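Bench log, entry 3. Co-assembly request; chain sequences pasted below exactly as received.
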Amino acid sequence: MTAASAPRRLRADAARNRQALIDAAERLFAARGLAVTLDEIAAAAGVNVATAYRHFANKHELAHAFLEQKIDQAVAIAQEAASAEDPWQGLVQFITRSLELIVANRDLHDVFTPGHKRESLDRLDQRIDPLLTRLVTRAQATGALREDLEPGDLSVILAMLGAVGDIPAENQELLLRRYVTLLLCALRPAPVPLPGGAPAQARQAHAPRSGAPGRRADGAQASDTVES
Amino acid sequence: MTAASAPRRLRADAARNRQALIDAAERLFAARGLAVTLDEIAAAAGVNVATAYRHFANKHELAHAFLEQKIDQAVAIAQEAASAEDPWQGLVQFITRSLELIVANRDLHDVFTPGHKRESLDRLDQRIDPLLTRLVTRAQATGALREDLEPGDLSVILAMLGAVGDIPAENQELLLRRYVTLLLCALRPAPVPLPGGAPAQARQAHAPRSGAPGRRADGAQASDTVES
Amino acid sequence: MTAASAPRRLRADAARNRQALIDAAERLFAARGLAVTLDEIAAAAGVNVATAYRHFANKHELAHAFLEQKIDQAVAIAQEAASAEDPWQGLVQFITRSLELIVANRDLHDVFTPGHKRESLDRLDQRIDPLLTRLVTRAQATGALREDLEPGDLSVILAMLGAVGDIPAENQELLLRRYVTLLLCALRPAPVPLPGGAPAQARQAHAPRSGAPGRRADGAQASDTVES
Amino acid sequence: MTAASAPRRLRADAARNRQALIDAAERLFAARGLAVTLDEIAAAAGVNVATAYRHFANKHELAHAFLEQKIDQAVAIAQEAASAEDPWQGLVQFITRSLELIVANRDLHDVFTPGHKRESLDRLDQRIDPLLTRLVTRAQATGALREDLEPGDLSVILAMLGAVGDIPAENQELLLRRYVTLLLCALRPAPVPLPGGAPAQARQAHAPRSGAPGRRADGAQASDTVES
DNA sequence: TATGAATGAGAGTTCATTCAT
DNA sequence: AATGAATGAACTCTCATTCAT
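Structure output for the full assembly:
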């Protein structure tokens, strides 16, 4: 984590091009998903395709780089939320802001290629997991959050809300607010315990892949619990 | 099954081919998303590509036809649920069964390409909307369902749960049950009213695309309501 | 070896195209080696590149198909030579005609791609080895050919003469004749035995790859034998 | 080594770079033929591609420069051989050593692209021709070498043996020795005169390309002479 | 002078779609 | 009506070569 990890300072113009590529990728990925061609991205960035290939070994590498930026943003959001004065408001803030990030980058899931580079995502897990835990623990300590909610649930909740973001609507913001509110209702202390556990932890919200159920705590099986 | 989709009575073998194509498409789309080639689908159906083109103007038409079948199934599910003895259980059953249908056809969203054929989906709306309304109304009448929930919300809820289905997990069924339960908590009568309204109605659960927000002008703004 | 091995009779036009592609490949490979692009070959054959890909999975497959034809020709030459009335003349004829084939297809060696499809070449071995043995045995029986020459030597001799064919000359035919004659001198019964043995058998003349030395028979080490 | 190839005296480091490039080219060309990229060569030499371009106008220039060095080595071999005590042994030595040089630099032919720089090769002719003539004349004077062999034949003989070097074999050295011996047999005084004449002179052994046949009008046509 | 970066012109390959039998 | 074959337009990626520091 010293200077070694930094990829040898780029020349000014190269750095500019690199960023231009990532920005273009962001715009295009967000607008049309993984389908965009590298030629298009390069053109949008004002450089030649070959230049894109100097910076990124292949299309997936570019998607990856683009992701890394998003990850940084996601972590920043979580950090700020975890330090909020009121734990419950911190949780709400985390969900709201993360959702904005996700919605602004539609089709982000496509970006995660099958057998490719899971590194950055794993790194996301490592950075964000403690923050999620803190968000949940603090809120539960105040009694504002139901006891059986686990940190990993937050990722899934974001995934669910992200799906709402895919619904085209005249007033999308209001639509999202509606379902955020709905879900928040579900997060309040409730008599019906949740069956199963959250998936392993984190990330799934952004990248569907791997992940195990959870520790579980389904004591009572109230009638509202869905049975298999 | 929908007579409307096959305007002229087909010769027996042609009809068999048509169905074989749709079945093959179902299998392949489900397994690998939009990436499959028409050649592959045709081969899997045991016919030539050109034959596929006799039945479907293009790849999207085929995907569309495939969808029509799913729609029929979705309507059937809604019908049965709307006639359930216990309204609340009917609602739960609707969600559960629909979710199964959605999850079994993962990657279904890819199938919808930007400017293509919305007809069949609109038809879904027409057939399913009354059923959703009945589901909701009945449940609200018994006091089991919160008053501010609208029929259109059901589609969105299914869309959210469908997103959970995209998360790979060791025990996917348990995972889904967890979040179905979570959402059911949110559907119970609650002091916090939902802001906005459900999107225009129906469908988005299966096919996110177009559609307007809702009519409601939100009354009370409890502290759990997310503000813009 | 019945009809099963034939790749399902092609339609007339397809067969025409296929042959046109092979012919074009022959012309271009002969003239410029493996460097030619598939686009060029397809253009020369008057078809679209994609058509080339319908017939041949990739560039190497095409080269391979082209080779198969050459192999047939080579086998025919060997067959005729092995049945010549005068064994020595048969040998001379084999060398002369094979050389013509090789020279007419300059850069034929390039065609043999590293890790690809050695099948057809191995098949050449199987078909041609007995013929080479017969050529050598018969000539040795009449005392016209030195006793220590092995069938596998013939391939190497052709490889050597093929190298002469790569030398640009005003009168190439005469040039070739000169060195064929020179080598024939070396094939006559001689007091100096050859060290080592011929490589495993056949093929090396056309495709440098694999192959083990030989059985060996170097009894006396006359002064003309090159020592290590 | 050839002063002519470096017109202006280079600064010490520049000269070092130049040589490093040639050495790297040698290593890589020998190992993988013309396929290597200039980037690779430059990297192997520890310099930047652009630096390579300061020293060599293009890829072929570099190959060319690399050749120049080989030529110096070839000339040295010929010189030593021409001064051998026993003329026949000198000839054998020349062939053996030259062959080693050729085999050690396989794929050398690829280096010669159609319309490029023949100069250095012509210069080889000028330097080596007298030596070849001396080798042949001396050997013929002792009666050890057939009378109709011409100096230019030696290059062709090396070209032929070089082709043997392209054959992969478990014991390549033994394989080469076998065919060197075979050819030496052919060089002994023989009753069958060679038709035609050697190509113009020299070089073809290393670089097959252009060049005219020979002057000789063939005299007697014994039965072993191959007729057109 | 030497470097890092950029570039244009392909090369090989794939696929939705259309044509001719 | 159904097939085999053909097509053109892309797409990803590479490399010799040139520019700007």
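Residues 12-56 of chain A form a domain with the Arc Repressor Mutant, subunit A fold (CATH 1.10.10.60). Residues 11-13, 37-39, 49-50, 53, 58-59 of chain A lie near DNA strand F (CB under 10 Å from a C1').
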